Amino acid sequence: MIYDLIIIGGGPGGITAGIYAARKKLKTLLITKEWGGQVIKANEIENWPGTKKISGTDLIKQMTEHLKKFEIEIKEGKEVIDLDKKGDNFFVRDNDQEYEAKAVILATGKIPRTLNIPGEEEFKGKGVSFCATCDAPLFKDKEVAVIGGGNAGFDTAMDLVKYAKKIYVLEFLEEMKGDPITKEKLAQTGKVEFITNVAVKAIKGKKPAPYRAEGSGSGFVESLIYEDRKTSEDHEIKIDGVFISIGMMPKVGFAQKLVELNKIGEIVIDKDNYTKTPGVFAAGDITDIKYEQIVIAAGEGAKAALAATEYLKNK
Amino acid sequence: MVRVFSTPSCPYCAALKSFLKEHNIEFKDIDVAQDLEAQKEMIEKSGQYEVPVVDIDGEIIVGFNQERIKQLLKI
Predict the structure, then answer these.
(1) B48 CA to chain A: closest CA distance, Å?
(2) Predicted ipTM?
(3) Residues 6+ apart with CB under 8 A from A127
(4) Residue A233 pLDDT > 50, yes or no?
(5) Which residues of B fall within a CB distance of 8 Å from A140?
(6) Is pTM beyond 0.90 here?
(7) Same domain membership, residue A230 and residue A132
(8) Of B9, B12, B39, which has the smallest distance from its Cβ to A138's Cβ?
């Protein structure tokens, strides 16, 4: 089976591309690990035209219901790990299967940036968290570190001060980049210690127990090693949790062979959503367009689907 | 019995709960930000400092793992 179009990603860009492609009667497959992406984390959205106020979860629910009304094949819960080109066609692979298409749209958006240090992946969910709004209440009376002294890191620390007894905010640069007013609020709690000029080197703990093992109460984060960039000395701080808030990165690894990336890893596109490989289109936060908004990602998804339709017609 | 361990501000918890409601699955919603006993139980049983956690007849699922939940609830 050869699809006309495979759309990768289930945020506003991918969903809108799906709606447009289905209405153009393209034989389309949409593959996504989850629905909504970053939108799910928005509690209140007040700039989606036609809807005065809506939660991210509800908006995405409406979008996916709308999408599923059309004739389109969908694979949910699947992560694409590779995209390649052989001859004229494209091959998209997830962990189980390979799919073939004449054109693809990349709309996998952005995910939280990782540190890529020992222990980070190993202790994910075992003290390492990327979602303070979710997990902060689990660290009541515990000591935690927030990595990143920008506004995202400060917001994370604000979520944590309600629960944790001590919070270290660690920043790579010489100064905290977040708003001074928030810094002051954090300082006033008496719980927050700011440390600048540090490179976090490792997250340590007892070896985690196997996933879902009965009584696996051990195997959590116990400490963190950072280097003081001025003295080059290593320090260890005892903590129970590490919240990583160092911004977002495009989820583009699987497609790297076929696209050009800018300095911050975003896919370079032209005004019609073409990437450097004809037949490969991209839309939304994964691209180098400047503004990252739901309505823009949706619009870009529509553009990409229309461009793909035209590309297929002229092929 | 289905139990959901969640926190009030967690978007994945909200998504999970509305998914269960949509499929008419009855569940007990436990706010682990308030109920610290339940929080302890959740961390011990799941081995994770992470919400949401679902307990389906003793089977523990971490995160909004739609496929696994569908499988266990046969929906």
Answers:
(1) 5
(2) 0.90
(3) A203, A205, A220, A221, A239, A240, A241, A242, B49
(4) yes
(5) 36, 39
(6) no
(7) yes
(8) B39
